[in-house]
Amino acid sequence: MLAGGIAHDFNNILMAVLGHAELAMVKLPPMSPARNALAEIITAARNAADLCRQMLTYSGRTSSALEKIDLRELVEEMSHLLKTAISKKALLNLNLDRDLIPIRGDPSQIRQILMNLIINASEAIGDRSGVITVAAGATRCDRDYLESTELGDAIPPGLYMHLEVADTGCGMDARTKARVFEPFFSTKFTGRGLGLAAVLGIVRAHKGALKVYSEPGKGTTFKILFPALTKEQEVARPPESSSLANWRGKGTILLVDDEESLIALGGRMLEHLGFDVLTASDGREAVDLYRKRAGEIDLVLLDLTMPHMDGGEAFGELRRINPDVRVILSSGYSRDDVAGRFAGKNLAGVLQKPYTLAKLTESLSAVIPDAEA
Length: 373
Ligand SMILES: Nc1ncnc2c1ncn2[C@@H]1O[C@H](COP(=O)(O)OP(=O)(O)OP(=O)(O)O)[C@@H](O)[C@H]1O
Ligand SMILES: [Mg+2]
Fold this sequence. Notes:
5-stranded mixed sheet
């Protein structure tokens, strides 16, 4: 629990690092020699955020932001990072099918799965030479097949997209194989034994299943199955964030957060998007400010968990002042949780924390017209 608390605070710090680096990136001219260094900062901060999430996932304090994901794209985007994570002697092969059906999931958690499996594969190969293959494809699973997997008895037969990590390393005997998902089970000197426990937790949350093939001396394959999105599920998706890169708004936004670094970051992001920004550090302050200046405030971006008066209460007060107030709630909890809690209350949006510039733009563009258009 202590680790979870620290990871949570650390996550906020990383959000500030990442956010400012992204802002700097969009302000730099395309040919600037500083771009490479910034890109490295962003990658490193993302890795640190992934590690943080590892701790949060294990301590059960994670929340997930579900998106439509193409597994092939996800692996390709990560391939450079995967190469740097494995031993020099190991060769990385990608075997990714084209035209995969998307899945619905949390991209950072799926990256975390891939990272854990790749590192295990590399450690299984050790100092010898060997090959690691990452594959993505489609598998039609019937009941019998699902029965042969971990977690498969809880999910329906159907079409699944798979992610597979195979290595030619040391392999496992039956006794080891039976225990790999136990938290703190490790055969390694430096291992914490949390890698696969976290993988199992994530796969369960994605309503997927997984299967392990291993033979001592030959190697190991981990196959993860994710339910393929059906056509109906695919339709309900937010606008592509890339088309929003040039989106600009105008007006005044009241930004409310008790975290100073996030006020600074959010303020910069909003200014970059063309807004004037007012800030408040808790619900009470926000309500007082809104009472005085409601006429000039176009939207309130409200943090859910704050001291004195939390976001939920503040939202109620704001609505008493102006029933048509536009509020986007930002929260570390999952979007669906928050949306459920405030259903029917005319919320303008829910923004999952930590948010990036792209996510912030996406939320705002859904309620505020493009000032450039
Ligand atoms: N690809 C693999 N080949 C052989 N054994 C494996 C492989 N992946 C996992 N294992 C076995 O499963 C155990 C548990 O793996 P897990 O990733 O959960 O923990 P760890 O790698 O020991 O430590 P951590 O990932 O927390 O640093 C490993 O110690 C190892 O014995
Ligand atoms: Mg591991």
